[in-house]
Every structure is written in C-alpha cells, then in structure tokens.
Amino acid sequence: MLKLYNSAISPNSRRVWITLLEKKLEFELVEVKLDGEQFKPEFLALNPFHHIPVLVDDGFNLVESLAILDYLEAKYPTPAMLPKDAKDLAIVRMVELITVNELLPGTTPLFPVMLGLPGDPEKIDQAKQKASTVLKLFENLLDDRPYFGSENLTLAEPVAGTIVPLLAGLGVSLSDCPKLSAWCDRLTARPTWQTTQPTPEIIQAFKPIFQARMAR
Question: Average pLDDT for consecutive 10-residue bins of the chain (216 residues)?
C-alpha cells in the first residue's frame, strides 16, 4: 500500500494528499510532526533533506511533491489529471511551476498573519504585489472551462488550489479576478479540499514552531 508521510499544515504535502484522494487510491497517512520528527534518523532514511512530503510505494521512496504527482499520474492514469493537448498541458505545467517557484516563496511574509503573528509591513506589501502579479496571470490562463486547461480537475488544481484560496484571508483581494475566484469556490467545495483543510487547532499548534523558525 502507498504510504504518505504528511503534515496537515504543509501545502506541499496537501497537494499530494488531495491527488491521492481524487484518484481514489488506498494509502496510509503518516503524520510527521515538524517539531523535530523530520530530523530523526528514521525519517532521514526516507528523505535526507528532511522535507515532507515523502511517498513510499513498495519500498520506492519518492521526494519532491511535483515528482510525486507525476509518478501518481503515470502509474494511476485514471482519472486523468494531465491534458493531452500541448497548449493545455503547458498551461497546467505553468500553473504548477509558477505556484512553486513564484507564488509560494513570494507570499511567505503573509503567513504569520494566518497564525496571528506580526509581520514586516514592507515585506507584506511586497508579498501582496507579488501575489497580485501571479493571480492576474492565472486569471488570464483560465478560459471558459472550470479548470486550468481542462473540463476536469488537473494537477494544477491541487498545486495552486492549496495556496490561492488562502490568500483572501491574508489580505489579498480576488475582486479583479472573477474567474479565479469562482475557481477557488469550486475547489473549496470539493470533499477532498474539505477533508485536507487544516483545522484551527492544527494551525494554532504550528504557531510556536513557526515562531521558533522566525527567531533563527
């Protein structure tokens, strides 16, 4: 059976968790407490970089969430979550990579707000500007179909869809992006998003861990 080493607070882990659920695969969920469990020898034997998620499939250890998603799509192609058309496939890949390389790191200064912690006003403003640039691009990449490049859910959704819906609660407006706003509503209504949504208790439990990281 597939085994996912996961943390409920992590969007990187959550995108894999959602994909496993959307593909209706059987798997074991192993919660990794990010207060130090990721540095223990047992976990480092799975991923020497001490990052989550890790997916284990019959003794094969997979790290890096986008690689894990590609693996799941190739090994379990039903339901298909990658388009065949070249342009549509490029849209999905752009959304994935822009989320990972631009949106997530660019909006990191906003996440203390989610935990009720003070942030740097200048960095927060820069993060909001970065988010606005990405969201406008995503708005332009959506057409009259409900998902990026497809009538059906693609891998772009669990990647971008675990970040974008959070931004409204962090002071980033989607008022200029009506298609993207409707896309967020579609995703957050899905059972897989609701099942994997971090609870307020999980968020508060992560607060001292985040504070310790900020203090380093």
Answer: 95 97 98 90 94 96 98 98 98 98 93 76 93 97 97 98 92 95 98 94 74 62
Helix (H) or strand (E) holding 19: helix 11-22
Q: Distance between CA 196 and CA 162 in Å, rounded?
A: 10
pTM of the model: 0.94
Which residues are CB-neighbours of 83 under 8 A, at least 6 positions away? Answer: 89, 91, 92, 149, 150, 154
Token digits of residue 78: 């039903």
Q: At what angle do helices 178-188 and 121-141 cross, to 10 degrees?
A: 90
What is the distance between the alpha carbons of residues 99 and 92, in angstroms, rounded to a whole number?
Answer: 11
The reported pLDDT for the residue numbered 71 is 98
Domains of the chain: 2-79 (3.40.30.10), 86-194 (1.20.1050.10)
Distance CA 56, CA 48 (A): 14
